[in-house]
């Protein structure tokens, strides 16, 4: 099947409630949250989820979550430390 870009975007938004780039960004950021539990650098994580520039990844993460990936990682680690008590 051949779809125009407009038709593809319209069908995607009907199916997911999001524009295709929003859907992809959300999936990438959710994947990065799992990777942030490891000790990988932000540069490596950004590359693993499809970002060629770590700064673009950091901005996308903050826009979607309201916090930076660095603060998210620190928050997860502190929750893990305190959950053992």
UniProtKB/TrEMBL annotation:
Alphabetical keyword list: DNA-binding, Transcription, Transcription regulation
Pfam families listed in its UniProt record: HTH_18
GO molecular function, one term: DNA-binding transcription factor activity
SMART domains: HTH_ARAC (SM00342)
InterPro entries: Homeodomain-like_sf, HTH_AraC
Domain HTH araC/xylS-type: 1-75
Protein's name in the database: AraC family transcriptional regulator
Organism: Ructibacterium gallinarum
